[in-house]
Amino acid sequence: MSDNPLLPIREKITALDKNLLEMLAERQSLTNQVAATKIAEGIDVRDPKREEQLLISLIKTGQKFGLDPHYVTKLFHVIIEDSVLNQQALLSAKANPDLATPLNRVAFLGSKGSYSYLATQKYFSRRSGELLEIGCDSFAEIIETVESNQADYAVLPIENTSSGSINEVYDQLQHTRLSIVGELTHPVQHCLLVATDTKLEDIRTLYAHPQVFAQCSHFLGKLSDIEVIPADSTSAAMLKVNELNRPDVAAMGSEAGGKLYGLSVIESNLANQKENHSRFIVVAQNAVTVPLQIPAKTTLVMATTQAPGALVDALMVLKENGVNMTKLESRPINGNPWEEMFYLDIEGNLQDGKMQQAIEQLKATTRFCKVLGCYPSEDIKHTAVSAVAALTD
């Protein structure tokens, strides 16, 4: 018999964890059945009133078992989000049967361990078919790999909550014939990674992608006598530190990526904003059909005339058609000094009448307007329920 008094308690916890996983798997199976019914009946994926009632009931039940309302809320936000994304993936697969292939060839920036690699793994974990990863050294190479049919998809970072839009990707979108077919938001948690037992004050050289340096500028500003060397990707930075294997060099990247290169964390939470997320888009040669039951987003690029108020006139088209714009980004037009291309993210489905009308009016109002893609929105808004209100209801 073990002398460790914690062992029997830990064994019970392990057994409970196994039961939890079995129940979560059963719940996921049931939500897949729900998705099948929604496909057949044309029912929307989300039912806000049902979600709100469910969460209030769970909070009250949790209180009876001594569970904190905020803990219950956070837990079921994750479960509901997973359910919604799984249902959306099933609906999308049903609407696009030609895309179901045994192999998904996906191009992304860097190699194993880069943030784009982690985002690729996350996005395609909900899609059928085996994943073939194709690491690239630049955004231009990623686009070329899909355009030349060496890959089926590309995953590209488009913006970050700390450093803003990734202009190079927007510039690539201006010229490619590829379509945006998906999106995802991935948490980015920058760490200082080393290959040997060392301390922060011993570091003299830092490797990272330029975007990482931009997102961690406050942390870097506190350091002195450190050379900052840009790398093509976070994975390239981590590989370099692994190869050098010296106590005076470090890389900046994710803890999960660092483990793939045998690196350990000596500092964490380095980003300027502690809630640091990157949004990625998924592009392919052909557009996808988005069922009307799924919340959709449409991205387009346009150029207005050089007349006063031309941009305002274009944006008024969206307002008059009741279409919500979630992002507006401008980029210079190569060869046309002081002229801009405008990129717009819009909440709406191209199959919807008001969206079709808005696009047609934009084409008439602007000198150039092109839809870059209509795709399922994976920006899942959590059910807004006050835990306190739920308990006093």
Automatic annotation (TrEMBL):
Function: Catalyzes the Claisen rearrangement of chorismate to prephenate and the decarboxylation/dehydration of prephenate to phenylpyruvate.
Keywords from the UniProt entry: Amino-acid biosynthesis, Aromatic amino acid biosynthesis, Cytoplasm, Isomerase, Lyase, Multifunctional enzyme, Phenylalanine biosynthesis
PROSITE patterns in the record: ACT, CHORISMATE_MUT_2, PREPHENATE_DEHYDR_2, PREPHENATE_DEHYDR_3
Subcellular location: Cytoplasm
InterPro entries: ACT-like_dom_sf, ACT_dom, Chor_mutase/pphenate_deHydtase, Chorismate_II_sf, CM_dom_sf, CM_II_prokaryot, CM_P_1, Preph_deHydtase
Pathway: Amino-acid biosynthesis; L-phenylalanine biosynthesis; phenylpyruvate from prephenate: step 1/1; Metabolic intermediate biosynthesis; prephenate biosynthesis; prephenate from chorismate: step 1/1
ACT domain mapped to chain residues: 299-376
Secretion signal span: none
Top-rank taxon: Bacteria
Pfam families: CM_2, PDT
One annotated Gene Ontology cellular component of this protein: cytoplasm
Source organism: Opacimonas viscosa
Name of protein: Bifunctional chorismate mutase/prephenate dehydratase
Record-listed substrate binding positions: R10, R27, K38, D47, E51, S83, Q87
NCBIfam families in the record: CM_P_1, PRK11898.1
Residue ranges occupied by any Chorismate mutase domain in the UniProt entry: 1-91
A GO molecular-function descriptor: chorismate mutase activity
